[in-house]
Every structure is written in structure tokens, then in C-alpha cells.
Amino acid sequence: MTEPVVPASEYYTDEFAVDPYPTFAELRENAPVCLVKGPRFDSYLISRFDDAKAALTDPRLSKDLYGPGQHYLRIFGPNSEALNRNMLNSDPPEHSRLRRIVSQAFAPRRIEALRPRVAQIVDELLDKVAPRGEAELMHDFAIPLPMKVISELIGIPKADHDQVLDWTQVIRTSGSSKNPERDRAAVQEAQLRLHHYLADFVQAKRARPADDIVSDLIAACDRQGTLSESELVTTTFLLLFAGHQTTADFLGNATVALLTNPEQLALLRADPELLPAAIEELLRFDGPLPVASPRIAAEDVEYQGVRIPRGSVVGVVINAANHDPAHFADPDRLDLTRERGPHIGFGHGVHYCLGVSLARMEAQIAISALLHRLPDLRLAVPAEELRRLPAASPFRGLLELPVRFTA
């Protein structure tokens, strides 16, 4: 079968950035495997739940972007290797080796021990905004909360938090300006500065270890020779970026979903025991990672009768799959009482989100505190006027989230 081809101009639109789900529904129905011709590279998108779940564990769809094919060049550009050559972009056994080392730092007991500190950071952030009666929740709360948590876990000095956050936000908001050339230059500069900072940071931790994840990784590396120096740096970057980016965007998306579905918000206020199930439903409903990180077809593969040629970039559309009516009744409706279903918001297979326990814990504490600390919380602008990350961004999130509440 000849695959449907969708030009980027039809897919990456302003309307899509506001609400991608009508487009996802059309793809699932009429082009469940299609080639999207993007501004930097073309990719095959897989949008039905069963196909998406299968693709996430398909060994023919490689995550090794930095191997002989050097596929990272067309996806991330020439300056990405210093930060992005990590376990996210690798296959077993390399991925297994790296994940095994890092997973020890995310043991459930260690994460649960962080609960009081996370609650303290949440209270500190809300103490600053609660008396004002209004806030910009992305800048004031959703972004700094997970950034502070992961920075402390990693061991980044408090004096450096704001600078590191600035660099990561340049990368996160790539494509938001009206000047793409200047935008790319700013991202490259931020990547370079962040790489230099993390390389120096790892060296400083080796000289003065402490009770943090990076010190643990260095100790494991020095004892067993399990991580190279460059892997220490790229792993630190992955933990830093993945540890706050998606959680920040999730908190923004979840807040908007609740405020625009008042009957569901009322349910949650009336029954706080719903919170764990609500987090799962909010993630299914409007997750922060619409398309899983890229895969490369290591050989010709076929999905839905469409041949995907060897060497093609493949994107698994998580947010489309999580709205598949074949698996979720009335999928475009937010239902906090929905039975916990098999959503793939945290991925599936060997690349299942390593920080899932931390993300769930942060989300539960943050959402609960927002509802209790900011009475009568409401959007300050109509939902359709909220400024979002550009349609071509790999993330679904907000640039700003202005709200009002009773001071």
C-alpha cells in the first residue's frame, strides 16, 4: 500500500497547537500510518493504540540514533551528540547497561523519602503567589517545582538553579519566536553552555561527592568502570531535562483540563481519594509528550499495510493512541472516574519512563495543593487564547498559564 503523505503545512498549524485531537482522530481513522513531511525531517506517524503499543516494543524500530547511520544529524542537528547520546537514544544491550545503573537511583523507597521535601517546595512556591490573587502558573509553579526537585536529586548547587533553568527553557521553547534562525542559534548556545556546565559539574562531584544521584553514578563508574566520562555527562543531562520538562508541561495541561471541565474538578474537590486515578486520566487525556522520541526503521517494516522503508524516522503518536475509541470509551471526554486503563502516557517496553514514581508523586502533591491553597482557581483568559509551545515542538505544553483565585 502507498502511504498517505501529509505536508507539514497541513499538520503543524496554529490550530493544531491549540487542539491536536481532531487531527489525531482523522489520522487514526483515515491514515493510521502516514508520512508527515516536516520542516527538518520526514517521519512516519503511527496513531492507533494497538499499533502504537506494538511499535514501542518492536526491535526493528531502533532507538540508536548515534550508531553508524548517524540519524541524529537530521533529527537533532550536529551539536546534539554532547548531550543527547544517552540511554534514551540507544538499544539493548547498551540501553540495558545504562538503565540498570541509573534505575538504582530511582528506587521507590528513595523516591518516597522525597515526599516531605516535595511538599515543602510546593508550599514555598504557593506561599509566594497565594496572597496575590493571580499568578502565571507555568513560571510561578509548574516549571520551578520539578526543576527544583530534580536539581536537588542530582546535586546541582542552589546558586546555579536559575541559570540551569534558563538554559533548559531556551531548549524547551525552541521554535516559539518569529525568527527561526535566531531561535536555532539560541538553542545551540544554550546546549553548548549547558554541556560545559555539566562537564564541570561532574568533575566537581568527583572531587567532592555528596548524597545525590550524580555522586552515586560517579562512585559506580569509578568502582566498576560502567560509565565513561561522556556518559556521565549525557546521563546527567537526560535526568535533568527529562526529570522536569514533562512534569512541568503535565502540570500545566492538567490544570487547564480541570479548569475547563468544572464538573470533573468538583468531583475531585469532593473526593480527594480520586487523585491517583485522576492523575492517570489527566495524563491520558492531554499528555505532555504527544509523540514518543524518534525511532529508526532498522529494516523495512509494515504497519496497517503501509511499508516503512529502512532508515525512516518513525514517531509513535502517544496522545492519538490514548484517544483511540477502540480502547477508551468516549475518549475525548475527561472522566476522572474512568477505570484505570492501559494508557501509554509513560511509554511501554524497555523505554518505559524511568522516573514514573517521581512524576506521579510530584503530580499528586502539586494538584492537591493547587486545589486547596488557591480557592476559586480559574483561568484569567479563555482557554483558546492560552499561549502554547509551537505545533512542531516535541512537547505539548504552555508558554504561559495566567490564572486568578481568591487571595
TrEMBL record:
InterPro entries the UniProt entry points to: Cyt_P450, Cyt_P450_B, Cyt_P450_CS, Cyt_P450_sf
Q: Which GO terms describe its molecular function?
A: heme binding; iron ion binding; monooxygenase activity; oxidoreductase activity, acting on paired donors, with incorporation or reduction of molecular oxygen
Biological process (GO) annotations held by this record are: antibiotic biosynthetic process
One short Pfam name that applies is p450
The protein's UniProt keywords, in alphabetical order, are: Antibiotic biosynthesis, Heme, Iron, Metal-binding, Monooxygenase, NADP, Oxidoreductase
Asked if Metal-binding is a keyword of the record, the answer is yes
Associated pathway: Antibiotic biosynthesis; mycinamicin biosynthesis
Q: Which family does it belong to?
A: Belongs to the cytochrome P450 family.
Q: Which PANTHER family match?
A: CYTOCHROME P450 YJIB-RELATED, P450, PUTATIVE (EUROFUNG)-RELATED
The name this protein goes by in its record: Cytochrome P450
Report the source organism.
Micromonospora olivasterospora
